[in-house]
């Protein structure tokens, strides 16, 4: 029957093994104590005691038989592995190697994934090394790209970007407040990406600046027109807003405008609302103008009626005058004929009562004339 070693013998054995560089837990030589020999795989919950090695004719393993690096073992680690077989130790080493290989694969995959970045077909970007703080000047779009681990793309949309402004207020040239809604489209080009990043850093900081610059140009366009022109010249106002927007976003080499590295596409003036007081004044003016127009039309109508009556009266007067003239001429002719007839009657009567004198002319003097 096996007995446990004494505390003094076990402690002495462990101290000798540490000094020689060997592991007493895996020694093939049994040891004994005052109570007898003890198996090399015996377990005890008590601290190791000093033991005396018994010569049993079996060769013991020494540091020369199991060469190990000359180091001092950790007592706690040696105590934990005191009863582990060699096959278990090999299995544990294999598990550690497998775990190490798995970690290496995972790290490699992570590095590879961190070295690949995708740029969608609707965007374009410039590669930025976050470790070296370096920015490339080449713009890339629509693909999968490789770079240093942890790099990123500073991206901008390659499609049209729409800015909407609803119920905004501007001041007309005559000082009245105009409420309007407008929308415009702009675009980033590949040649403008790098200078935009240098100047504005990224899209999130660049887009609000573009929108505010566009809104400023629209306000300046409002100040060029009178309030009445917003009713009948909306097409001209929209064209002027578009021209000022292009100048503000794209800049001009001949002027002081630098632009904001954006290309203007189009602009739509979707809504215009004039002040209520102005609308009332315009309504009242239109009503007054309609009343005036109605009065003028009525005046023209009455004048036409009067002229018609006048023409009728003139025509009647002319008819009466013509009738009177005709009657007068008839009477005059009748009177002349009666006078001639009476003269002839008197003449022939005179001839009948007096002697005919051949020397006397038979033609009345008034007939000669």
Can you lay out the helices and strands and say which pair or pack?
Blueprint: H1 7-20, E1 31-33, E2 36-38, E3 49-50, E4 52-53, H2 75-80, H3 86-114, E5 116-129, E6 134-146, E7 152-157, E8 161-171, E9 177-187, H4 190-200, H5 203-222, H6 229-232, H7 234-250, E10 263-273, H8 276-353, H9 365-368
Antiparallel strand pairs: 1-2, 1-4, 5-6, 5-7, 8-9, 9-10
Summarize the structure.
This protein is 50% helix and 21% strand. Mean pLDDT is 78; it is low at 1-11, 20-67 and 69-73.
Give a description of the structure.
The protein is built from nine helices and ten strands. By secondary structure, it is of the alpha+beta class. It starts with 6 loop residues before the first helix and ends with a helix. The chain has a three-stranded antiparallel sheet, with helices on one face. Among the domains are: 7-84, no CATH class; 116-157, no CATH class; 161-274, Tetrahydropterin Synthase, Chain A (2-Layer Sandwich), CATH 3.30.479.30.
């Amino acid at each position: 029957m096996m007995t446990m070693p004494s505390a003094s013998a076990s402690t002495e054995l462990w101290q000798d093994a540490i000094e020689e560089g060997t592991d007493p837990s895996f020694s093939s030589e049994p040891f004994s104590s005052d109570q007898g020999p003890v198996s090399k795989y015996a377990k005890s919950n008590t601290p190791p005691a000093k033991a005396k090695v018994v010569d049993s004719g079996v060769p013991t393993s020494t540091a020369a038989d199991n060469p190990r690096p000359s180091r001092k073992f950790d007592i706690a680690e040696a105590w934990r592995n005191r009863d582990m077989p060699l096959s278990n130790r090999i299995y544990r080493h294999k598990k550690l190697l497998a775990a190490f290989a798995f970690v290496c694969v995972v790290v490699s995959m992570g590095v590879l994934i961190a070295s690949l970045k995708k740029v969608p077909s609707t965007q374009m970007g410039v590669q930025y090394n976050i470790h070296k703080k370096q920015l490339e000047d080449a713009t890339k779009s629509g693909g999968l790209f490789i770079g240093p681990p942890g790099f990123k793309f500073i991206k901008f949309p390659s499609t049209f970007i729409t800015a909407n402004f609803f119920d905004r207020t501007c001041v007309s040239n005559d000082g009245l407040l105009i409420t309007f809604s407008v929308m415009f489209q702009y675009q980033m080009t590949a040649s403008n990406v790098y200078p935009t990043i240098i100047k504005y850093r990224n899209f999130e900081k660049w887009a609000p600046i573009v929108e505010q610059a566009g809104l400023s140009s629209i306000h300046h366009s409002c100040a060029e027109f009178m309030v009445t022109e917003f009713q009948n010249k909306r097409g001209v106002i929209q064209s002027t807003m578009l021209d000022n927007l292009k100048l503000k976003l794209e800049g001009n080499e001949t002027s002081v405008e630098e632009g904001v590295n954006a290309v203007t596409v189009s602009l739509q003036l979707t809504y215009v609302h004039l002040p209520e007081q102005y609308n009332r004044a315009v309504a009242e003016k239109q009503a007054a103008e309609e009343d005036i127009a109605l009065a003028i039309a009525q005046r023209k109508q009455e004048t036409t009626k009067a002229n018609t009556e006048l023409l009728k009266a003139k025509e009647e007067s002319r008819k009466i005058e013509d009738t009177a003239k005709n009657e007068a001429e008839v009477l005059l002719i009748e009177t002349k004929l009666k006078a001639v007839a009476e003269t002839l009657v008197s003449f022939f009567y005179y001839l009948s009562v007096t002697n005919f004198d051949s020397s006397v002319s038979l033609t009345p003097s008034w007939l000669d004339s």
